[in-house]
Amino acid sequence: MTFPEFFAENWTDVLDHTVAHAVLVLQSLGLAVLIGVPVSVLTYRTGAPRAAVLGVAGLLLTIPSYALFGLLITPLGLGSAPSVVALTLYALLPVVRNTIVGLRELDPAVIESAHAMGMGRMRVLVTIELPLAWPVLLTGLRVATQLLLGIAAIAAAVNGPGLGNLILDGLATAGTPFAVYLTIEGVAGIVLLAVLFDALYAIVNRFTTPGRLGA
Amino acid sequence: MPDVTRGTPEGGAADRTMIRLDALTKRYPGQSEAAVDALTLDIPAGHIVTFVGPSGCGKTTTMKLINRLIEPTSGRVHLDGRDVTEVPAPQLRRRIGYTIQQGGLFPHRTVADNIATVPRLLGWDRRRVGERVDELLHLVGLDPKTYRRRYPKQLSGGQQQRVGVARALGGDPQVMLMDEPFGAIDPLNREALQNEFLRIQAAVRKTIVFVTHDMDEAIKMGDRIAIFGDNGRVLQYDTPERILADPAEGFVTEFIGSGASVRRLSLTRLESVVLPDWPTVEETSDGETLRAAARGSDRDYLLVLGDGRRPVGWLPVTGEDRRPGERLPLLSPLGPRDSLFDALDHMLTVNASAAAVVDGDGRYRGVVEMDTLRELINTRAAGAPSSSDHLQEA
Amino acid sequence: MPTRLLLRYALTPLCLGLVLLVLALYVSSQPRDLIEERSLNSEYLISRTVKHLELTGVVTAFILAVAIPLGVLLTRRWARHVSGPVLALASIGQAIPSLGLIVLLTVAFVSLGVNQIAVIAFVLYGILPVLRNTIAGLRQVDRSVVESALGMGMTPRAVLWRIELPLAVPVMLAGVRTALVITVGTVALGTFIGAGGLGDVISNGISSSRNLVLVTGSVLVAVLALLIDWLAGIAEDFLRPRGL
């Protein structure tokens, strides 16, 4: 059986796993943004808390993925839950770091003039600071996405969803011709997702970056 | 060419050619114009020759062709009579001092290690290298004890540049190539470094190619100036005096600018000028002596001398009866190394029509007047070739 | 200042030691069945740790031996047209997940031993940070410094060894640190193809549903990674040339 024949038979499987992989990554990214951005906003002005947040996020990224997945099985059991939590934790550093950098890089004169015109603290944050910090935050999301797409393959080892299952199926059938096919499908799916997401970010960046700020 | 020997001892090997560029051409692939086009130039031993011109004129390229950082497309470079391609490029370069605008000091090496680079490449023993480093630090005015162990980052820009010069002198080369060595220094410190470098050169007498884009610097530093136009063509190659007095048509005149006659003032130092008499009085003189001195002169000011004949102030003479008035303070007299241009600058700055000049020990030597300078500018602008008419050279 | 420095260097191993102590106390306080006993004895854990460190060391050595010379070659003037495509290719390769790479090599080259496959896969995976930082480190060396070195008569080889590489060291070390951390982590995946290491303990815990084993393995891998990151951080501080 050649690879095209094999693919013709199991392409629905591949598609399912690919979608599951993408959903897993997007869920985790969303959670990372929901946690990371408020934490960044609260800490970016003050030295010690900012250093602590960045330190913890950096520490999380240093912990090897298999170990972090393993640690989360004890409280969360096998399956999706430890996968989503682990990926969320990994995405925190790029998200938090870039949000903080983006907010800190803003021209203080702009913020000051906004306050001077009578805008409140919250209003300045939502209408001025975050939109101006958006391109840097977007870069952080892009980095986080590429990172998570790769790590998400390990979710399969804790019975999580995603393309890692095809890779582990390939390993399980090692010695048969299907082994290589399955593994290639899993790997190619992830690389393809990486390329797709990168293109998506390029487009989003182009259309959401205000005026001259575009990178 | 009597002026060529400016800054060199009488006679000697003043006119021996140290560097000869022979129909030197550099073309870069894909560019229609040559960067340096059939350039022929003789650089005399023991002199500073400044290459000056707008950016992109090929002056730096020409300089790098001498130590083969760039290899020519055609033509030859002779160093002390021998073709530079006779020895491998690294060996050649060890005999040629090299300093560039950004300093190029090795940031991970101490000042001493930086200066020791070439001596070590030449295989000197440790003691000789150490002595050489201290000698050179002294020469550029940095205390070896303080600076030997420092890293470049711990030095000011001016100090880095001094170390750069010391490093270029490391192997005691006959020839030095300097590419805008003071270009990154602020104007005030640049002038101090220029003066210091001229002092060093008076002691070491190297053959120096000095690249700059600044005409004033070229005039100040150069025994000869080569003015580059486009494509590495030299439009005029002569002493500063002759270039200012008789610039080649077109580009050179334009490049020198309208201030040429003023700039020429910077070529004459006060020490080489005979200054006219001026009425002086002692600080301790009583009123009668002052009045007598005021009446005995037709000047509007008397110069007041203090201890050791140091000028300390001006005494204005006012009214029909020539009565001495309130004494005005005199803060900084001009020294022997100052040029006539410095004198003009000084007078314009303090809004005076005359300035006191002292000798090396700070003693009164004479007074230079605005009127004299004005005449000098006018006669020179008219094209008079002689170096001085009203002020006689000593 | 010295106390602060001491704190900076001593804090991490103190915390990690504390974590290990708590883990040891907890594990010894729990009743253990035979399956747990098989993974949770010091002999087994030490052998897995040694194997893990061996693999990490060998992989890192290969990474350095390949990535640094390659980085140097790609920054030489005659290679400037090649370096862009090579880096682009390496970046795309980075999108391949580590698990995918190791499994792909295993199923595709059945004749190779698991250790060989593990080393090849992890070297390929960890090469990019060192390669990229070697190139970046050499490129950020001030051109004027290189030019004066040449202008003073240093040979190109001497300029590379005495000027360019020392000045690139801080950036290169950062890349090496990243590669080390990545390698410690990916070596844990060696267990999937039977290449051993501390990943075995985690796998044992998952396959036998013994949380005690799982937690022990996970904590050990995490502590090892943080420890190596800490050591690399100290090395960065001490290997950086003075004066920079």
From TrEMBL, chain A:
<dbReference type="InterPro" id="IPR035906">
    <property type="entry name" value="MetI-like_sf"/>
</dbReference>
<keyword id="KW-0813">Transport</keyword>
<feature type="domain" description="ABC transmembrane type-1">
    <location>
        <begin position="18"/>
        <end position="202"/>
    </location>
</feature>
<feature type="transmembrane region" description="Helical">
    <location>
        <begin position="51"/>
        <end position="73"/>
    </location>
</feature>
<dbReference type="Pfam" id="PF00528">
    <property type="entry name" value="BPD_transp_1"/>
</dbReference>
<protein>
    <submittedName>
        <fullName>ABC transporter permease</fullName>
    </submittedName>
</protein>
<feature type="transmembrane region" description="Helical">
    <location>
        <begin position="20"/>
        <end position="44"/>
    </location>
</feature>
<dbReference type="InterPro" id="IPR051204">
    <property type="entry name" value="ABC_transp_perm/SBD"/>
</dbReference>
<feature type="transmembrane region" description="Helical">
    <location>
        <begin position="79"/>
        <end position="96"/>
    </location>
</feature>
<feature type="transmembrane region" description="Helical">
    <location>
        <begin position="132"/>
        <end position="158"/>
    </location>
</feature>
<keyword id="KW-0472">Membrane</keyword>
<comment type="similarity">
    <text>Belongs to the binding-protein-dependent transport system permease family.</text>
</comment>
<feature type="transmembrane region" description="Helical">
    <location>
        <begin position="178"/>
        <end position="204"/>
    </location>
</feature>
<dbReference type="InterPro" id="IPR000515">
    <property type="entry name" value="MetI-like"/>
</dbReference>
<keyword id="KW-1133">Transmembrane helix</keyword>
Automatic annotation (TrEMBL), chain B:
<dbReference type="GO" id="GO:0005524">
    <property type="term" value="F:ATP binding"/>
</dbReference>
<keyword id="KW-0067">ATP-binding</keyword>
<dbReference type="InterPro" id="IPR003439">
    <property type="entry name" value="ABC_transporter-like_ATP-bd"/>
</dbReference>
<keyword id="KW-0547">Nucleotide-binding</keyword>
<feature type="domain" description="ABC transporter">
    <location>
        <begin position="19"/>
        <end position="256"/>
    </location>
</feature>
<dbReference type="Pfam" id="PF00005">
    <property type="entry name" value="ABC_tran"/>
</dbReference>
<dbReference type="InterPro" id="IPR027417">
    <property type="entry name" value="P-loop_NTPase"/>
</dbReference>
<dbReference type="InterPro" id="IPR003593">
    <property type="entry name" value="AAA+_ATPase"/>
</dbReference>
<protein>
    <submittedName>
        <fullName>ATP-binding cassette domain-containing protein</fullName>
    </submittedName>
</protein>
<keyword id="KW-0813">Transport</keyword>
<dbReference type="InterPro" id="IPR017871">
    <property type="entry name" value="ABC_transporter-like_CS"/>
</dbReference>
<dbReference type="InterPro" id="IPR046342">
    <property type="entry name" value="CBS_dom_sf"/>
</dbReference>
<comment type="similarity">
    <text>Belongs to the ABC transporter superfamily.</text>
</comment>
TrEMBL record, chain C:
<dbReference type="Pfam" id="PF00528">
    <property type="entry name" value="BPD_transp_1"/>
</dbReference>
<keyword id="KW-1133">Transmembrane helix</keyword>
<keyword id="KW-0812">Transmembrane</keyword>
<dbReference type="InterPro" id="IPR035906">
    <property type="entry name" value="MetI-like_sf"/>
</dbReference>
<feature type="transmembrane region" description="Helical">
    <location>
        <begin position="212"/>
        <end position="232"/>
    </location>
</feature>
<keyword id="KW-0813">Transport</keyword>
<feature type="transmembrane region" description="Helical">
    <location>
        <begin position="53"/>
        <end position="74"/>
    </location>
</feature>
<dbReference type="InterPro" id="IPR000515">
    <property type="entry name" value="MetI-like"/>
</dbReference>
<feature type="transmembrane region" description="Helical">
    <location>
        <begin position="86"/>
        <end position="110"/>
    </location>
</feature>
<feature type="domain" description="ABC transmembrane type-1">
    <location>
        <begin position="49"/>
        <end position="232"/>
    </location>
</feature>
<protein>
    <submittedName>
        <fullName>ABC transporter permease</fullName>
    </submittedName>
</protein>
<keyword id="KW-0472">Membrane</keyword>
<comment type="similarity">
    <text>Belongs to the binding-protein-dependent transport system permease family.</text>
</comment>
<feature type="transmembrane region" description="Helical">
    <location>
        <begin position="167"/>
        <end position="192"/>
    </location>
</feature>
<feature type="transmembrane region" description="Helical">
    <location>
        <begin position="116"/>
        <end position="135"/>
    </location>
</feature>
